[in-house]
Write the structure tokens for this entry.
Amino acid sequence: MVDIRTTIGSLSLQNPTMLASGIMDEDAGSMHRMIDSGAGAIVTKSIGTHPREGYANPTVIELDHGLLNAMGLPNPGIDQYGEEIKKIKTTKVPLIGSIYAADAPEFTLLAQKMQHYGVSAVELNVSCPHAKHYGLEVGSDPVLLHDIIRNVKNHITLPVFVKVSPNIMNLSEIVQTIEDAGANGIVAINTVKAMAIDLQTKRPILANKTGGYSGKAIKPIGIRCVYDIAQTVDIPIIGVGGITTGLDAIEYLMAGASAVQIGSAVYYRGPEVFHLICQEIRTWMKKNKYTTITEIIGASFQ
Ligand SMILES: Cc1cc2nc3c(=O)[nH]c(=O)nc-3n(C[C@H](O)[C@H](O)[C@H](O)COP(=O)(O)O)c2cc1C
């Protein structure tokens, strides 16, 4: 019998697939749809203290091997989004509240509100490649990041995950900081900073000019980051970036991830992607004589 349950520290998941932040998590209705489609956990879109409109269109374009987006973190603000979170009725599928802010007091306020609304963990988004003040400025500054994580940890009891970027040169230092500050897990990776130009207009296609690349093309980048992070820290890692099939998920597990998140593939394969990937993982495990996910996690290490 194949058992695909997994854990991320104290969090138990019925299967290792999670919905990534920013995809089909507008409201309680869309999140319920992802839960019904078999996701082992759900991450909310990244929420800030106040409503934010996001950037002008076009915000998402489809390229040959992935999506390029600069949404600009559109969200209704924590108070209004809290009403959606409260509507989610499930105890089996953990709901993880993703939050963004520029400093420790704001992150702490958001984390406390998320805890109050009933989420199972919080994910600190410090890695958006196209949001001024809220993204890489925070996620590449070890002193600021340490302060944010310590503050959040001191004010909530829930597990705290930190989502990192592949766009920084000091990833090892940053993940070491995240662990030292007491975070309970690392999510890797956010989108890869990128751009596309329209040959006719000779202008960048996205209204914001640059955006974040996701989907199939970024899988090797995510795999490398997860592998490196696993060599650096002992806290659990959640792998994300280009996962489209069960085999992609297994590759991330072998690189050291305890669970995986799926974003762009929800657009490519539909919401049933969670169910399909779980089925593909089971089939591979049976064929290769694995019985538990734990046997696969970090299998690539010598
Ligand atoms: C349209 C879109 C919106 C996103 N919004 C967020 C967000 O609000 N917060 C966040 O942490 N990541 C966000 N992401 C990044 C994804 O969560 C994920 O890290 C990235 O897309 C790589 O995974 P994938 O290749 O499976 O899509 C977004 C990605 C896309 C494509």
Q: What stands out?
A: The radius of gyration is 18 Å. The longest helix spans residues 273-287.
